[in-house]
């Protein structure tokens, strides 16, 4: 791929054809990633080390932590961010290969339809991620987790485990739900902006 294609692709990803799309890029790329990368590591970075059960043995702690966290929140949210970026990345790669200028995307119906489809696909992926987050993490992190250790062939079947910094994790969890809702709203608003531009209610850029 030539440098011009790479330049067009990067400009398209960083400067979408709509105002709301540009705000979405700023919000998505800056605030959400910063929140996850910096604060997420601070909240969840040492969770496995401080997760303790009764009896406090490494074997039991590791087994119960894997049961408590089938996937760590940082990994889940990082995958969510990457997957949600894919539809837009494919569109801008297509635009770069076809030498489509950003200002022309909202002028031709086929380009506009393709772009709206990529935005709609982002919404679908965010909704799926929202549902998966509910299934995996719920809305609240409890201070005590009851672990089924029957598979370890212990005399007891259920043991109590203490979850470190559960209140901070609950706040962070709600924040990530909020970010997902905000990005979905921005995607819907972007489709509305495109519709208004196509109908002539708003001036195209």
Automatic annotation (TrEMBL):
Residues that span the membrane, as ranges: 25-44, 75-94, 114-134, 171-192
Superkingdom assignment: Eukaryota
Keyword field contains Electron transport: no
GO cellular component labels: connexin complex
Compartments (UniProt record): Cell membrane
Start and end residues of each Connexin cysteine-rich domain: 125-194
Pfam families (alphabetical): Connexin (PF00029)
InterPro entries assigned to the protein according to its UniProt record, in alphabetical order: Connexin, Connexin_CCC, Connexin_N, Connexin_N_sf
Family: Belongs to the connexin family. Beta-type (group I) subfamily.
The name this protein goes by in its record: Gap junction epsilon-1 protein
Gene: Gje1
